[in-house]
UniProtKB/TrEMBL annotation:
Its EC number is 5.1.99.1. It comes from Microbispora bryophytorum subsp. camponoti. PROSITE patterns: VOC. The gene is mce. The keyword Metal-binding applies. It is an enzyme of class 5 (isomerase). The lineage of its organism: Bacteria, Bacillati, Actinomycetota, Actinomycetes, Streptosporangiales. This is Methylmalonyl-CoA epimerase. Pfam families: Glyoxalase_4. Belongs to the methylmalonyl-CoA epimerase family. Keywords: Isomerase, Metal-binding.
Length: 140
């Protein structure tokens, strides 16, 4: 069901500073920047690699306000890995299949994600403490 790691989401206080760090230390390049009001984030995707099933990225996330998913995460845990996004062929089908196995779905239906993707989150408490995102993308 999981085709690849689409992205690793990293929570940070200052997006511009963290972009500069990933560019200068790892030589990564920003391929997209977006503000996602629904998710409460300002984010940037940095391209890491291309594979048979599609590309992979580091996604840097800065909260728009303290009272958002990433804002609360930063207050509780500080900067670091926030979630893992896995590529799937069909996010609606994947949600049905995973939900039927008793895993709590944060999103019952796909939502709008970075670079036009359809995304849905699974509850970290049912995935061994890992906030898990399913990503269906047309950018293969
Ligand atoms: C919270 N918890 C996490 C966590 N965030 N565990 C692992 N990874 C995380 N990222 C844990 C807390 O430590 C706490 O456990 C429990 O979950 C409840 O947390 P809370 O402090 O009450 O926090 P809430 O209210 O934010 O709820 C957590 C939840 C929420 C995961 C349900 O953050 C959520 O719905 N996230 C999905 C949406 C999201 O994260 N959007 C931002 C990225 P204890 O044991 O202390 O009770 S948007 C994105 O990435 C898009 C743009 C894209 O990829 O395209």
């Amino acid at each position: 069901m999981l085709l690849r790691i689409d992205h690793v989401g990293v929570a940070c206080h200052n997006l511009e500073e963290k972009i500069e760090f990933y560019e200068s230390v790892f030589g990564l390049t920003v391929v997209s920047r977006e503000v996602n009001e629904e998710q409460g984030v300002r984010e940037a995707m940095l391209h890491v690699a291309d594979g048979d099933q599609g590309a992979s990225y580091v996604q840097l996330l800065e909260p728009l306000h303290p009272d958002t998913a990433v804002g609360r995460f930063l207050a509780k845990r500080g900067e670091g890995v926030h979630h893992i996004g896995y590529g799937v062929a069909d996010v609606t089908e994947a949600l049905e299949e995973i939900g039927a196995k008793g895993v709590r779905l944060i999103d019952e239906r796909p939502r709008h994600g970075s670079m036009g993707a359809s995304i849905a989150f699974l509850h970290p408490k049912d995935v061994g403490g890992v906030l898990t995102e399913l990503v269906e993308t047309s950018r293969r």
